[in-house]
Fold:
Amino acid sequence: MDLIVVKNLVKQFGDFTAVNGINFSVKQGESFGLLGPNGAGKSSTMRIIGATSQRTSGEVLILGKDPEQAGPQIRAHLGVVPQQDNLDEELTCAENLYIYGRYFGLPKITVKNKLDELLEFAQLLDKKNSKVKSLSGGMKRRLTIARALVSDPDILMLDEPTTGLDPQARHILWDRLFRLKEKGVTLLITTHHMDEAEQLCDRLMVMDKGEIMAEGSPTELIKKYSTKEVLEVRFGSDRNSQMVEQLQSFADRLEELPDRLLLYTESGEDLLAKIVAANIHPNTSLVRRSSLEDVFLRLTGRSLIE
Amino acid sequence: MRSQTAVRKVSLTGFRYVVEARILNMIKWTRIIIFVAIANPILYLLSIGIGVGSLIDSKDGLGGVEYLTFLAPALLATAAIQGMLDEVIFPTFEGFKWVKNFFAMNSTSLTGTDIAGGVFVAALLRTTFTVVIYWIALYFFGALDSPTAWLAIPAAIFAGASFGALIMALAARAKNEDVFMLITGRFIVMPMFLFSGTFYPLELMPTFLQWIGWISPLWHATDLGRFLTYGHQISTTTLIFHLIYMFALLVVGLYFAFHNYTKRLAK
Structure:
């Protein structure tokens, strides 16, 4: 069953078109990602699906209902993790979860019985009675996720879940989200981090300037829009662009970034050997597998994080 | 999927969960709230009521009562308005701008109307507490002189509610809190406090300034309060007009508060 169906969705703010006629659907139990740079229209799309913002045109069905007709009824079944934590800083962790459960109209006793389980999931059981303002960024993020789970949502929506967190905090968070995915929770995630999309999403949609550039599983997208491997070479910022012409013929495709050149190929090591044999010596070289970052670069001609 | 019953329940009485959240927040400030509620009337009554009052010999202009008795209903209504303003302005800015917790509320089944309603009712509760304490202080200072004096409590709260609703509607539209506070504080609240017949009868003011009193809920509540606390003579028409005016203000204020909350959340 499709929990989310979006057809020809358009969202305009005055003259600016944030979302320009996109189509997609998300099945039950699926983990779906919206990938794109800032300003791609991801958050606008999320707010419309989250039944808090009105669309300009198009059709949207969430759990079979139109968010503009049945906003509160739909929201009762969504768990929302916004881009910016909006926890109540003066209240404790337990109080934040409790009151959020109450907003859904859950009975006091039901919410109270869930507190420990949620705090344990967020690895914050020892912070149960600490005020939120004393928590670290990663802790607040986990609490926000736990808060979104208080109503046992059918869909968990996460807007940039790990942006601004340090690597360790991100990995803890990914682990928590992965567990939810294993339990069959439907996830809708926006991110501009490729690694995050690769870790968490079964299927994703690459967005840019309000439009869908590509859709598929991470592996499919890489297969379709990139090569197996990438050779990254650096000649120093002055010489990089001079080398483009010489190197063009060696690779399937070449991308020039300000600090390095990316050569797309099936085997990076072989390509490097050929270049060296042709008496071209980069300052540094690196062979890696293609990632969604490369897909994005191919599709938009820009890198994701500028 | 969970049953629809829980949802339907929320959409009817959603505001009470927001009230619960507001109270949970206020509890964190219990001591300050109690201190302010008690210190405020005592300071005003000592300084203006007794201090300034002792300089006023003539009771004729005041309808034959002590200055403190004359002043008391005005102070009570002022306290109600001030209390209401604090509790609608700050949570509104906090909710939309500083913490953005209204957006968290709105991502549950709660609507803009639920949230505005909850903030308003919680503010009323806090104001009721403040006004009751104030009234008790007035009683001990001997400023109340009528069996109907207790009715000054709902009259003051009524004024606070009607003015509070209006300010809440405006606060929900305000982008910049500093500008908003400056304008409401200096150009609305202060003139209202000074020109609503608070310190002397409105009729003593030049006619061209009396309109400030007429549109001010503070004057309506004060005039009503004086009738209730010491039998100040007003006609039945005036009495009804006071009530209708404050009620109309309340309805209009709440309508726009609900509307503006909903609109800002949907942006």
The longest helix of chain B spans residues 67-98. DSSP finds eleven helices and no strands in chain B.
